[in-house]
Input
Amino acid sequence: MSNNPKYWQNKWDTNDIGFHKQQTNQYLVELFPTLHLPPQSRVLVPLCGKSLDMIWLIEHGYHVVGIELSEIAVKAFFEEHNFSYTCELHGNITKYSHPNVTIYQGDLFNLSAQEIEPCQGYYDRGALIALPESIRSAYVDKISTLLAANAKGLVLTYEYDWLEIIGPPYSVPKQEVMALYHQFDVQEVMHQTQNPLSQTLFKKGLRAAMDYGFIVTLQ
Output
């Protein structure tokens, strides 16, 4: 799910997963309810890892549909939360199923729209910013094929001086988000200066960064 899928596989293989947060994302808690999705809506979470954000979504009445490259991450999610699951192999994709969450393990680009029931919601905390610029457009186009008509989503990005550090996570500024999500209505709902004491980006030598949040609605 990038120009170099082995990069992310190796991160999980070596447990080098500083990108995995030990708490629910504050912007998810603050902003996702403003989407007003009906109970039991299917919420697409690409590059989901074993994120605790999925637990928040489940606890708030949604059915999570995750997509994740690493088998280690997928199994860890189910096992750490004592979720029983079944597995089905669909070509290059393995489908892990539980009553409240379905995770497709494999490359997002290998997942056909016919294999997945369209999702009414979408949550992107770490997918877009994990991808190099060369495939971001293809990523957004792929996401649009997995969503239902008028689906709504929350997209979170960073903006920083890309000359200061080498991603991932990459800087994806507002103007790029607007261009990438050309099939969506895009509304900026949050921008906030990051706290350097609490963000891993600053440990890489970054001096300033801005968080952005966008509500996107498929047209």
Q: What stands out?
A: The mean pLDDT is 91. The CA atoms of residues 66 and 103 lie 4 Å apart. The beta strands are 42-46, 63-68, 86-90, 93-98, 101-105, 119-124, 147-160, 184-193, 209-218.
